[in-house]
Amino acid sequence: MRVLIALFVLFASLPLNAEEKLKVVTSFSILADITRQIAGDKLELRNLVGADADAHLYQPSADDAKAVLNADLIIANGLGFEPWLQRLIASSEAPGTRLDASAGVLPLMLDEDGDKVPDPHAWQNLANAEIYVQNIAKALSQADSANAAYYSARRDAYLGEIRALLGEARQGLGQLPPAQRSIITSHDAFAYLGQAYGLNFIAPQGLSTEDEPSAAEVAALIRQIRADGVRAVFVENIRDPRLIEQIANEAGAKVGGTLYSDALASTGPASSYLGMFRHNLDTLLAALKP
Ligand code: ZN
Asked: How far is the CA of 239 from the centre of ligand 1 (A)?
């Protein structure tokens, strides 16, 4: 009897029993992949904004609300990227721990209609991705201490891959001549990449994808492309390509391919975070190299 009581006390004090996995919700596809790279199959993971989808314009479903309510851990990007998640957590009074994966990133501040706001797209700099990985691994280990050693081993292996790609990006993009460093994309999603490697990203849409640009703004951008001789114009996977195609056409520039901004691809090499970054890097280099 005493053994049974001792066993009962032991099991009751464990945060999770052997069959019950930690329930984690991630806000969008990039965080879902980074979390899976660290956690493998140790979690029950539910992601909200899927591949090729636009998190800026997302409308959560009733199922999303239920998942958030039942989650042990909710992993968001933060920096104002998911206002809808904030509302969902507040209205459901979800008891799970919320983590902002970007905590500790030095945010770029941008001007949005006269207000200074943080740019949320911090994952486009691999050095920031290292911070995301550290934050997520730490939160997983705290919520599920039985698997802490497993999470740290996978974190370290993943950080090694991130640093190797960072070295390649630095080397490849570092060789571009100053005249080949302007790039047109649909919305302002690449400022962190631009800052890290001295590239100048210009977009007809602002930080969010919500506001459509005016005819005057589009005309100004076309003039700028012509005047600067910009060769690199790209569509984004989360956006209707027609505006960018029209701009490229009128400016006499060519569309250099698709860049993945705020979501992974549903299949293929860009369906993981590092695969996506490599795709963007290769696509930029192919268009910009003299
Ligand atoms: Zn965006």
From this structure: 10
